[in-house]
Amino acid sequence: MADVEHRTVIVIGAGPAGTTCARRLAEANVDVLVLERREVVGHPAQCGECIPNWGEVIGTFAGLDDHAWLEETFDVPDRIKLHRLDAMRVFLPSGHHYTFKLDAYAGHRPQFDGHLAERAEAVGAEIRVGVALLRLQQQRKLGRELLVTSDGGRLTCDYLIDATGSLAHVGRMRHGKDSACRPADQVPTVYAQVRGKVPDMFDVFLGSVAPNGYAWIIPKGPDTANVGLGVRAGKLDGRLKDHLRTFCDNLDLEILEVGGGWIPMGGPVKRMVDGNALAVGDAAGLVMPSNGGGISQAIISGCFAADAILDHQHDGTPLQAYQDRIEFTFGRALKNSLRSKNLGYAMMRNDFLTESILRILGPIGGIKRAMECDRPLWVL
User: Fold this and answer.
1) Looking at domain 4-83+107-184+265-338, which of 3.50.50.60, 3.30.1330.30, 3.30.450.40, 2.40.110.20 is its CATH number?
2) In what order do the strands lie in the sheet with 97-106?
3) Cys-Cys link to 106, which of 220, 246, 342, 344 (CB 3.0-4.6 A)?
């Protein structure tokens, strides 16, 4: 049996939240280990690969204008920015669309995530790939929690970061189906890397093509794009991949690679801090329900989790300060986004209703406000 290895902080997951947290801690000379189940950080991708610029971030969330460390983190090398996304078009079932400005770019997640991981390693964080967390064993007589990993490892830690994505594996292993610790309304998604004639801007499609969800085309270059569907479970018959293939065939797009995952659309979990464990990014439910965006929140929450650990080490500040800071920064935007999603679930039940409602909201800026996580029905 392997010896028990003790680390100050163990991060489960090397996505943007996990590696940002690890880098922030390592810069403060904290011992930190990141465990990543995939063999390659960032691959396969599980999102549309639209990454916001700093201007988009501070325009959406509170209290970040002067956060130089985060601003520098979002300033990635130009080689990662494959295509500027200066505008988004939202298409109604009829084909009519509304356009508004966007401050983002299309990236390739293995490059983007790999860049963040390399920065964490450069300052002393250790990242082990191909290593999955299998289970947590509560050894009460020894007063510890044992992490058992797929490589035969047995580890303990002072602090544990759940950066495992939407399924929140640490929360699941500790508390089963307890909704307070696991993100709700898990929406299945499927995406494809495609080649063909693609638009120059970020296109979103609403209606029967993706009931209670949306389809997207995110251009990554002159003839390549990330195309995907996110549909509320049970709203489409058959396999989601088949519907995506039909969508691509109708647009004469050649599919090069297919992937998929889950997006938590139920808003933040009630308990982001559980003893010595902090949930970050998708594992904390920090995804915008009205547009599916989560990369910004992942990076920011990773930074905030690291700060909470540093403050706890330094002067005993309760780790709960992490959740308080999350709620201050994201609370308004996430609440408005969840309201927009629930409004869509309740009212956009078919193409006729979807078209009618969006025809009303479009001219008064309601669609734009919903996508930007503002109140869509402010005029009322």
Assistant:
1) 3.50.50.60
2) 50-52, 97-106, 83-91, 202-205, 214-219, 224-230, 186-195, 254-264
3) 220
